[in-house]
Amino acid sequence: MHIQANYSLLSHNTFQIDVKTQYYIEINRQSDILTLRTDIKLASLPWRIIGGGSNLLFTHDLEGVTIRCTFKKITVVKEDHDNIWISVGAGVKWHDLVTYTVENGWWGLENLALIPGAVGAAPVQNIGAYGAEAQDSITRVHTLNLYDGQHREFRHSDCQFGYRTSIFKEEFINKLLVYRVSFRLRKLHNGKPNLVYTPLKSALEDYKKEDLTPKIIYDTVVKIREERIPNPSKTGNAGSFFKNPIVDAEYFETLFKSHPDMLHHKMLDGNYKIPAAWLIEQAGWKGELHGHAAVSNQHALFLINLGGATGSEIEALAQMIQEDVNHKFGIYLEPEVIIL
Q1: Which residues are catalytic?
Q2: Which domains can be identified in the chain, with CATH numbers?
Q3: pTM value > 0.85
């Protein structure tokens, strides 16, 4: 454990925003928190948690203490004929974990390939893509209390998972540090592909369903993402900036009469999910610039840093999009990205 003062977070956020935090500390064991709390100055400051910074937009320098978990151990906890359970340190890169599971022939995470960020953020955000969510495979989440270092274990049913949210993002934000996450995965003979996402299913139409493997799904998802989504290592972005809005059936019918080409997905509860990217593009924002920030030409749901953008520029662009979409469609786009 090493305490760094006036520390730049440029390398810890995929938007590539250069802000500083008053103190930066990496934690990889439970005792680190107890040690830090004995420092009167540090204990008196606000503490915040970051992961890989792939879902954050920094708009100013941060006061207080910024904590990041760097525990990276992967352990096979148990297995039976059909399934395997693994425990993964929060500091492991998410895509590295997905690659590891696919190389072992385990089903469960292959649809979530190439998502940036760390494992510790997966249950917090309940990350999802291509018809899958992290909660589909998570069995337990192990946390450390930032005030006293105490360990607390959450079963899946305790996590209050929802669309891009959880109890860790709401009730326990910056209170509990995710330390380890446990997953149940299916062995090769016991699994089947998740093809509920139509573009993925279409991309695999030349395969017989029984011939598909986690690796084939993984490779296809990676190919689709590389073609459609700006690479954060080259162009600063934090993935999908807004959540896909959900409207009730009555309002959907009203919108659909005016916009019969509107993309949509009917949900099990009768409500409709409308792609935020479609709304943004229809409102004319795809490719638009604001200072050094822009809406990606590849995918309208991605706001990008063209180089030298400030967090405030990107936030202002997001707000203009929200206002315009709300004016044109009567729908408020809720940010998926956490703005600090």
Answers
A1: 164, 240, 336
A2: 3-69 (3.30.43.10), 74-228 (3.30.465.10), 236-339 (3.90.78.10)
A3: yes
